[in-house]
Amino acid sequence: MAYEHILVEIEAPIATVTLNRPKVLNALSPDLIHELTSALADLDADDSVRAVVLTGGAKVFAAGADIGDMADRSAVDQLSRDQTGRWAPLAGFSKPLIAAVNGYALGGGCEVALMCDMIVAGETARFGQPEINLGIIPGAGGTQRWPRTAGKYAAMEVMLTGAPLTAQRAHELGIVNKVVPAEMTIPVAERMARQVAEKPPLAARMAKEAVLKAFEAPLAEGLASERKSFYFLFATEDQKEGMHAFLEKRKGVFKGR
């Protein structure tokens, strides 16, 4: 499918999706959101793809929402168009999703990165929630995902000052997995994606679900869910292959069955 605001490259077993509105620093317009979530739905259904890298390219990830599109809208307008609610398919993407961030990841752009499972940041990357400077607050999960990952006090600083954090500071707070030279950001993220894509896809999916459950459920409920998934995986061909490959001292070949 041809897209106007994103690029999709598939080199099985991974895909790379690039936000592609460079003239406006990849501002997250409704059309871009629609294209991105549609592309991810297609990649979720594509069995040849086992992990995805999401990036904005070499210079910027996304500098936030399209403010010109929102400036004169009313509360009723925002409620009816449900702009931030449209990100649900990204948050619900079942396969491993790695953000490769160069330059600014601000506002909605930062929230998109936080919806991913891992983040590789270039040394130039800056993460922040400047919404307070516009008289609003984050609306796509920033107020919820920051404290769950970085803690209350760091989250308060980010929300209340609107000041961006460096890649290194984000790494110290646990927001970022790796900080690398800017020119290596996408290659390193793709290398990580390929490493993950070699793993049994059903186990990867259930591991992702289990970790996300930890942010949403009490410990006892999370443990019960984990236990069910653990037992379920013994019904898969990949479990038999993985354990026999280990015993036979060879590399497992996983088929997602």
Write a structural description:
There is one protein chain. Helix content is 45%, strand content 15%. The chain is an alpha/beta fold. It folds into 2 domains: 192 residues, Alpha-Beta Complex (2-enoyl-CoA Hydratase, Chain A, domain 1), CATH 3.90.226; 47 residues, Lyase 2-enoyl-coa Hydratase, Chain  A, domain 2, CATH 1.10.12.10. The strands form 2 sheets. A 6-stranded mixed sheet has the order 1-2-3-4-6-9, sandwiched between helices. Helix 6 runs antiparallel to helix 7.
Cα(first) to Cα(last) distance is 28 Å
In total, the number of strands is 9
In this structure, how is the largest beta sheet organized? 6 strands, mixed
Using only C-alpha atoms, the radius of gyration works out to 19 Å
Overall pLDDT score: 94
Dominant shape: globular
Class from secondary-structure proportions: alpha/beta
Strand content: 5-15%
Give the neighbour order of strands across the main sheet. 1-2-3-4-6-9
CATH C-level class of the largest domain is Alpha Beta
Low-confidence stretches: none
CATH architecture of the largest domain: Alpha-Beta Complex
The CATH homologous superfamily of the largest domain is named: 2-enoyl-CoA Hydratase, Chain A, domain 1
